[in-house]
Design brief:
The chain is α/β, with parallel strands linked by helices and about 230 residues long. Helix content is about 40%, strand content about 15%. The structure holds NADP nicotinamide-adenine-dinucleotide phosphate (NAP). The site of NADP nicotinamide-adenine-dinucleotide phosphate has 31 residues, from helix 1 and helix 4.
């Protein structure tokens, strides 16, 4: 039976690459995109069997609920949720002069988005015997070594890591594995041109999506290696 995955923010960047890799491994992949036409464009560009464009704004409860209803009707379950969508690598900002409205806006997408998604899709993840949630995090969220730069982004990812631990503990009885993954510095719109190639970043995330049932939960990884929180 083909596994069903949903990737948020998958019309470009790392989310698109993760969708490509999962489709190549035989998954049916809902390619979440704020703009349905951009999501469809990404699916057409990749041209792989199993890719399905899906309108999804992780900050919009109605949009999330509509996709829950659609996947429930079309598949009856969800095996893998990849919380990839994120915004605002705020290199221009410093902690002591931060624009708190900007910080709140960042939290809406980078923290409350994944939290909302996990709660909304829980009934469908419970229908899978091998549920996985991957929260795409960042080394910027590591508490040890937290600097004064990128305060909104760094704090949102530290909070996402905390959410990962909370979800992993709460979902232990359901055998749903929840992990945070840093893909490494990747040359995307967010990462900029100095970053590395996209394929290993995608592989880092796909590794956590495909963990065996006795695999780790409540961990923070990059390329399959544990990271310090
Ligand atoms: N690139 C790096 O070096 C790097 C390093 C560490 C961690 N990461 C993490 O990796 C993930 C992907 O990053 P990336 O580099 O691929 O970023 P990106 O190129 O900027 O792509 C971000 C994606 O998220 C989507 N998105 C933003 N807000 C959304 C919302 N409210 N609802 C749904 N989708 C939304 C964007 O959609 P639109 O096209 O509609 O804007 C876009 O598809 C992020 O979690 C990022 O923090 C990246």
């Amino acid at each position: 039976m083909r596994k069903i995955a949903l990737v948020t923010g998958a019309n470009r960047g790392i989310g698109k690459e993760v969708s490509r890799q999962l489709a190549e491994k035989g998954y049916i992949v809902y390619v979440g995109s704020r703009s349905l036409s951009k999501g469809q464009q990404a699916c057409d560009q990749l041209g792989l069997d199993g890719l399905i464009a899906a309108q999804l704004d992780v900050t919009d409860q109605e949009s999330v609920d509509a996709l829950v209803a659609r996947i429930k009707q079309e598949q009856g379950r969800l095996d893998v949720l990849i919380n990839n969508a994120a915004i605002n690598y705020d290199t221009w900002q410093r902690t002591l002069s931060a624009d708190l409205d900007n910080v709140k806006e960042t939290m809406e997408t980078n923290l409350y988005g994944p939290w909302r998604m996990a709660m909304a899709f829980l009934p469908l993840l419970k229908k899978s015997n091998h549920g996985r949630i991957v929260n795409v995090s960042s080394g910027s969220g590591t508490l040890n070594g937290m600097g004064a730069e990128t305060p909104a982004y760094g704090i949102s990812k530290a909070a996402l890591n905390a959410l990962t631990l909370k979800l992993a503990a709460a979902l232990l009885p359901n055998h749903i594995l929840v992990n945070a993954v840093c893909p490494g510095w990747i040359a995307t719109d967010m990462g900029g041109s100095g970053g590395g190639p996209i394929e290993p970043g995608g592989e880092s995330i796909v590794w956590a999506a495909m963990l065996p049932d006795d695999g780790p939960t409540g961990g923070f990884f990059r390329h399959g290696e544990r990271l310090d929180w």
